[in-house]
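Technical note accompanying the year-one report. For the benefit of new consortium partners, we illustrate the data format agreed upon in the data management plan: each record pairs a sequence with a structure-token string. No post-processing was applied to the example shown here.
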Amino acid sequence: MLTGVQAGKLEAILDTKGFERQQVPYARFSFSGPSLLVTVYEKKNKLLVQGKGTDEFVEFILEPQVTGLLSVAEEEAKEACTAHFGIDESGKGDYFGPLVVAGVYADARIGAALRKLGVCDSKLVSTSSRIRSLAEGIRKVPGIRFHLVSIGPERYNQLYPEFKNLNRFLAWGHATVIEGLVGKVPDCPMALSDQFANPFVLKRALAAKKLAIRLEQRTKAESDVAVAAASILARERFVNWMDAAGEAAGMKLPLGASGQVVKAGRRLVATHGEEMLPKVAKMHFKTTQSVLK
């Protein structure tokens, strides 16, 4: 249950973040976003949260911004965290588009500014316009340092055979971003990354670059504000590429690797020829076989 004030606050937050309003019987309001449906019912402001994005919603939005479950001491401790790099990527599960890896440096002051800005995991942001707005705000935070590696499909298709494994490819991308950040903030003591594979895969990639920085990997690392900021910057670069490529191709390039993506790939090949596919798609995906049937 929420109080009336909390319900109003939540509605304003979801509206601001670009979630889409839904019509639900007996609901005061209902919003949908990526893998998430949030509904507050008129009776006693009962809150119902559904979907795969529930944990991230509770951790990023509900507790810190609405219900205030974190105490002042906990918030201060969170903001006084050790200075570190946060690393995240966008596009790894999308057939069309680049693989983008981004990293952000945050200390206590920068972290507080990012939280005030409303930075959260990009998967909780429903619209490209909101992604771009947050990314612009991140770049304006005083003292912010960031680094991006964007691997377009053509380059991606050239590099992938060298790794023969997506996790090794991702580890190389993460290590390359960390290397770039170390060049900008040499005294940063640690880097935090989402755990996308056996932890030793990324550690080996860092060792190959002779980077001795302390590395932490954990699932749902996007709960860390530096990682969340990196996810926003990576997603911005990804959606900008997708919009530009779709405009050039004269058609929308859908996300993911679903049946809709296969249909779009076949249409693309029919319109521009098979040689167009490696310019916009990750060819090692099994989707390619379906597109070229």
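Partners are asked to follow this layout when depositing records. Strands lie at 20-21, 27-33, 36-41, 47-50, 84-90, 99-106, 145-151, 190-194, 214-218.
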